[in-house]
Amino acid sequence: MEINDLRIFQIVAYEKSISKAALRLGYAQSNITMRIKLLENKLNTTLFIRNNKGTVITPNGEKLLKYADKILELIDEVNSEFLTPKISSTIKIGATQTISASVLPKLFYLFHEKNPEVSLTLKTETQKNILDMILKNELDGAFISDEITSSKIKKVITFKEKLALVSSISIDSINALQSPIIVNSDADCPYRKLLQKWLSYNNSKAAAIIEFDSLESILRGIDEGLGISLLPKSILPKNHNFFIYDLKDEFTKLEIKFVINKNLKINPLLKSFISVTNNHLLNSQ
Q1: What is the per-residue pLDDT across 154-168, written as a single tens digit (0 to 9) for each?
Q2: What is the CATH number for 276?
């Protein structure tokens, strides 16, 4: 049994698609199909069933996947231990749009000061997509606020971001809102979910919900008097004319985590980025 065949099988299983696996691996689809067929012949079983919904793994395929995960994890550990890794000149970091606006500019600046020859790439996505990219090793690390549900994702840094209710008009009572709320169109946006939780906590109901798909549009909507929003204090313009209202209890701060793939060996660049982040957070307290 070829190790590469196991890796191809694993990627097809997780992608649930021959074409997606081929694209990710840079192989022709026919080559992927042939390697899967050879593996099936060696094991005398059917690993996948192809139908109009895609490539569906069989019960025996599920059994093999458990072994493949363990074997390939051990192979990767051996390679990491004995082979000198290629030093990348690029570091790729993921974050949601609002987190990237509040946290990343300063960290990228500090990191670039220490590593001027290194290219920095920021991937802005939903938290679900970011976590998928971490699992696929498409990112070196990412800032999220979701709970970690995968055992393959490791939390490296945790800190709390100060939040506030933001409005362009004075609010008589924040516990009896009359204004619409302005939120990100992503239903899993952490600031949107926390604002809705706060409304529920106060037995309040927004007059209306206005959705935008960018932070810039949310800030512009607040400035135009469309409604209010819950945002990190750090992203507010220096010379703003907003009314800022601090909330209480669990709604004053949002926990942010920097996570990496548990099986990823931390290279010098990522180690430097983690160090810069920790030092900045320590000096900001």
Answers
A1: 999 999 989 999 998
A2: 3.40.190.10
